Amino acid sequence: MIHIPDLAHATTVQVIFCFLAFITIATAFMTIFSRNPIHSAIYLVICFFSIAGHYLLLNAQFLAIVHIIVYSGAIMILFLFTIMLMNLNERHQVHRPRITRLGAIVSFCLILIVLIAIFINSKPIVGGYDSTGEDFQSIKVLGKILLNEYMVPFEFASILLLVAMIGTVLLSKKEKLK
Amino acid sequence: MEMDTNLALLLVLTPFLGFLINVFFGKSLGKTVSGTIGTLAVAISFIVTLLLFNQITTTGKAIEVTLFDWIQISNLKINLGFLLDQLSVLWLLFVTGIGSLIHLYSISYMHDDENLHKFFSYLNLFVFFMITLVIGSNLLVLFIGWEGVGLCSYLLIGFWHKNQDYNDAAKKAFIMNRIGDLGLLIGMFIIGSMFSTLDYATLKTAIAGASNLNLPLLSLAALCLFIGACGKSAQIPLYTWLPDAMAGPTPVSALIHAATMVTAGIFMVTRLNFVFDLAPDVQTVIAVIGAITSLVAATIGLVQNDIKKVLAYSTVSQLGLMFLALGFGAYEVAVFHVITHAFFKACLFLGSGSVIHGLHGEQDMRKMGGLRKAMPITFWTMLISSLAISGVPFFSGFFSKDEILLTAFHHSIPLYVVGSVASIMTAFYMFRLMFLTFFKEFRGTEEQKHHLHESGALITFPLMILAILATFGGLISLPGNSWLNEYLAPLFTKVAGEEQHLGTTEYTLMGVAVLGGLLGILIAYIKYFKQNNVPESDENITGLTKVLYNKYYVDEIYDAIFVRSVNGLSVFFRDYIETGLSTLVFGLGKITDELAFQGKKIQTGSIGLYLFVFVLGLCAIVSYIFLAQ
Amino acid sequence: MDNILNQIGIENYIFLSVVLFCIGIFGVLYRRNAIIVFMSIEIMLNAVNLLFVAFSTYHQDAQGQVFVFFSMAVAAAEVAVGLAILVSIFRNLGSISIDNLKNLKG
Amino acid sequence: MNVSTILIILLIGAFATYFSGDKLASKVALLFSLAALGCSVVLLNNYNAGVNISVICNWITQPKIAFALNADGLGLAMVLLTLALTPIIIFSSFGNEYKNAKSFYGLILFMAFAMTGTFLAADGLLYYIFWELALIPIYFIALIWGNGDADERRKAVVKFFIYTLAGSLFMLTAFIYLSQKANGSFLIEDLYKLELSSCEQFWIFLAFFFAYAIKIPIIPFHTWQANVYQKAPTVGTMLLSGIMLKMGLYSVIRWQLPIAPLAAKEYLYIFIGLGIAGVIYGSIVALRQKDLKKLLAYSSLAHVGLIAAGSYTLTLDGLRGAVLQMIAHGFVVVGLFYAAEVIFRRFETRNISELGGIRTQAPKFTSMFLILVLASVALPGTFNFVGEFTVLYSLSQINIWFAILGGTTIILGAYYMLRMFQHVMLGETNSKTFADVTLNEGISFAVIIAVLLFFGFYSKPITDLITPSLETILNVINKN
Amino acid sequence: MNTLIAITGLGVFCLLFEILNFRKGIVPFTILGLLGVLALNFYEFGSTESYYYNMITVSKFSTAFSSLFVILTIFLVALSHNFYENHQTKISDFIAIKIFLLAGAVAMVSFGNLAMFFLGIEILSIALYVLAASERLNLKSNEAGMKYFLMGSFASGIILFGICLIYGAMGSFDVVEISEFSLSAELPIWFPIGMILVTIGMLFKIAAVPFHFWAPDVYEGSPALTTALMSTLAKVVAIATLFKLISGLNLIPSLENQDHLHTFENIIVIISIASMTVGNIMALRQVNVKRMLAFSGISHAGFMLMTFLTVAASAGVLLYYTAAYALAGIAAFSVILYVCKNQHNEDITNFHGLGKTNPLLAAILTGSLLSMAGIPIFSGFFAKLFLFNQTIQAGHIILVIVAVINSIISVGYYFKLILAMYSKEPNEERTGKPFLIYAVAVVSITLNIVLGLFPSLVLDLLN
Question: What ipTM goes with this model?
Answer without folding.
Answer: 0.92
